[in-house]
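Table S2 (continued). Query chain:
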Amino acid sequence: MKRIFLIIMLFSNLCYSQTNRLYVDKWEFRNTKEQKYYKALVPGTIHTDLFANKLIEDPFYGTNESSLQWIENEEWEYIASLGLTAEQIKTAGEIVFEGLDTYASVYVNGEKMLSANNMFREWRIKCSGLLKQGENEIRIVFRPPTGEEEKLAREFEKQTALKELPGGNRAFTRKAAYHYGWDWSPRFVTCGIWRPAYLEFDIEGTIKEIETTQNLSDGKAIIKFNVRCGNAEGLRAILLQKGNKISESRVVSNEAEITAEIQNPELWWCNGLGEPHLYGFNIVLRNKDGQDVDKKEINIGIRTIELVQEKDTFGSSFYFKLNGVPVFIKGANYIPPDNFLPGVTKEKYARLIDDAVKSNMNMLRVWGGGVYEDDEFYKQCDERGILVWQDFAFACSMVPPDKDFADNVREEAVYNVRRLRNHPCIALWCGNNESDEGWQNWGWQNKLTDAQKQTLWSAYENIFKNILPSVVSEYHKNSNHISTSPKIGWGHEESLKEGDSHYWGVWWGMEPFEVYNTKIGRFASEYGFQGFPDLETIKSFVPPDELYLYSPSLKMHQKHPTGFETIQKYIEMYYDAPDKLERYITISQLLQAYGIKTAIEAHRRAKPYCMGTLYWQFNDCNPVVSWSGIDYFGRWKGMQETVKNAYADILVSPVEENGKIRVYIVSDRMKETKGMLEVRFESFSGIIPSEPYLTTVTVKPNSSEIFFEKDAAEVFRKVSKTTNYMNVILRVEDGKTYSNELLFCKPKEIETVK
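Corresponding output:
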């Protein structure tokens, strides 16, 4: 059996670069029904710990998923011992858990000190009078989410006479929705200490948080650093750049404000428009003796970003302006890179963001059914110029109507907005994914009384139209926020005229790919099509004797209820049906590439009516048949190379529309571009039926324009739809070449003539 499930220990030492932290390691775990303890890795999950101790089989292999569902119904205990000196006891401040998944009771030296119920929050325990010299026991008991949800559901039923929340009772729990299974994800309802745990010392002069604000006007940037400290009264906060002092301020009430002024600053640009320039600063706390007692590094990107939503003759716009420039957004929807999040390394984040850059993307949408990502993800986006559309962690469900839940959500939002607000990559905060659409269009209201509807909708509005926008407004000033995505469901005509759109007529509606040429929204924030991963990836999770289509293991790794059937129907639309797995893989990837190419080009041609395209989906959290262009192991499907070309800074796009054969040139460049356009009608047999059409072109910046047009009937009097195709080449003055092809028939209808 080939092992594909990697266990990676991210933190293994008690020491850390920050001297005020002592990390807690050497954890053990057990099922509370049993006596024996086993070694645990922290950060980690129960599934990774069970696997590392050879107590379960590889969760991703074969059909093992089905035999591991018992794990989520058990109670698990984690225990560690923290040895402290008398001197350490004196300065012990708080025990910090950056991530507890999810329902956890925390005991310190036998005393219950914390009851956690949110995976997305930081949790702190004050140490005053709690710790002792020598060994201190930290014990955490994780209760099954399913059991807690049953209790909450019973309370919900008492309040509303409803047995289940619309969208499922998982919505009672502040935990990553995809852990419960999705149509691309297995069901592994994890628990554990999934982010670092440490003792934080209250020593002289610690920098706890830095909030930056910036004002850019008249060729000058003023950056303010609000520094929040611990035990730092009377110290000086000093701002350094490249070792030179910029400014300083005295710490008063454990806060200080220091300022940097930059003349003619280099701006931060997204990939494709310029360099993502970052200014590096050091903030130092210095005592009266001139000693530096703490230091933080921070990188600042100077930029303005605005989401423009304005009424127009069509409906309402939806586009981003970066540094005053309207930007056509090119990217994808991003999901967590693993079902077991602590296994995601810095190297994997770097590789994924590098893939986004190589694919000519400028934005990733962090989808609401996942998590608020690790700091490393946003750091990589900052450095590589990838904008981030950040969903809050809600997807495809309503929310409970109780105050405790709302208060919990507010704490979660405050924590994550404060954590991420300094990143120049953050372009948008979005309240949820498809919850509004579910309420309006998925039949959730059909069996509800008017009173029940009012209760649930009021709870929804409180979270998404009150709490979350107020948190963003207070803690990330001048940032962009929307309450939900999409604004209007894809079954409504208005969805293509205003706001962002999730168009699922292709796939869910079984419409042909050509529909993409006419069903164009103002900003396409979700659409997609499945494709198989490469054979090598399939071999990693399918036993050798199951390497055939629809085998039990392959079925286990197709999470969409009609996925195979839908792919098959589309194959029959466009290709000859393959009879072997290897051929099926190839055809499915060609099909996926064909569909996504059709959509992207249609969206880009429609610029500026349409100003963004984010396909579903960029990556995978497990080895699986899915919508991704890049599989779990980082292998590119055929679609990804197609996306790379379709997202180039200049696109030549031939299309048959409105009885015409046209060639559009779409430019995302900010400068005029000159070049030579060549149009050929060629034969699949290598015969050239006509002389090429050649013309010089001047392409306007940030534009989409037709540079070639002929009556389709006239063209088809000279060329055959089944034996000929159109080849378009643009050679521009800087030496780059852009090319594309247009088929006049479906691939299965192609004929070759000898």
